[in-house]
Amino acid sequence: MTARATDARWLDAAARLSMRARPISYPNPGVGCIIVKHGKVVGRGWTAAGGRPHAEAAALHQAGEKARGATAYVTLEPCAHRSLRGPACSDLLVEAGIARVVAGVEDPDPRTAGNGLARLREAGIETALLASPAAEASLAGYLMRARQRRPHVTMKIAMSLDGCIAMASGESQWITGDVARAHVHARRAGADAILVGGGTWRSDKPRLDVRLPGLEQRSPQRAVLTRGVPPHGVKVINTPEQIETLDAFYLYVEAGANIAASFLSADLVDRLETYRAPIVIGNGYAAVGDIGLGALADAHGRWALEERRQLGSDSFEAYSRLRQK
């Protein structure tokens, strides 16, 4: 294995580790750090609840003296700015005697933005910024907020084989089975906020919480897209574009046909997750309303399959939006 391939493998591992920080690290990004010496892990960490300590600080604490002369793999460039909440991670890495730092993404925060790696180089530490798709994906919400001023949006649709989300009578509980619904709750637990439309809120009165043992405290903040009377204790937005006002990196949208159409029309969906039950409804409600598509050719080249799995009798597929860099 080449040195570059080895670096990429450790960054992939750090990216997987960082998922333990999502979404509890908010308002800080969920970062993963692995410290390796002579091919063995001597320390690992991820951003703690509320954002501190940072991943590097946690990994260095675990490594102790073994950090001296080691390589630190971190998904996001180590921060360069000091704050009242803690020291800069670049300073901590210097003090610990780290010999080399490999980062997967340059921090878009102007307080760091290249300065973290520069500080390390000034201290004689070898640095590398290795483009890492895994690290980039693990920081999707943070990067979307920094670059587009909005949360990363995942839209979930549960439907029948013929693309219906409800009977003609409006009956929709339950299209999918227990395993798929548990998977949805796990996906909710990874979001900062969850949104439904006003119609769904009024007709179904959804709890929009996480009901998995041990993860109940991970229930996201609730939001409703409506022009009606704001529900008590729930954030209300009037248009899809107003998601930028949500205090979130990751937004999970449980879409009815109109909400799905409005978000897709506005091109605000970054990940589309579908749950398909082995049933045929026939004359029911379509999963997605009119999105203003002018020609069939315009529908192609927009989505790429990321994941596919079986959940009991239901099938799950996840697609990422293909965008020009």
UniProtKB/TrEMBL annotation:
The keyword RNA-binding does not apply. The keyword Iron does not apply. It catalyses: 2,5-diamino-6-hydroxy-4-(5-phosphoribosylamino)-pyrimidine + H2O + H(+) = 5-amino-6-(5-phospho-D-ribosylamino)uracil + NH4(+); 5-amino-6-(5-phospho-D-ribitylamino)uracil + NADP(+) = 5-amino-6-(5-phospho-D-ribosylamino)uracil + NADPH + H(+). Residues 9-128 form the CMP/dCMP-type deaminase domain. GO terms for molecular function: 5-amino-6-(5-phosphoribosylamino)uracil reductase activity; diaminohydroxyphosphoribosylaminopyrimidine deaminase activity; metal ion binding. Pathway: Cofactor biosynthesis; riboflavin biosynthesis; 5-amino-6-(D-ribitylamino)uracil from GTP: step 2/4; Cofactor biosynthesis; riboflavin biosynthesis; 5-amino-6-(D-ribitylamino)uracil from GTP: step 3/4. GO terms for biological process: riboflavin biosynthetic process. NADP(+) binds at residues 158, 174, 200, 204, 256-262. NCBIfam families: eubact_ribD. This is Riboflavin biosynthesis protein RibD. It comes from Erythrobacter aureus.
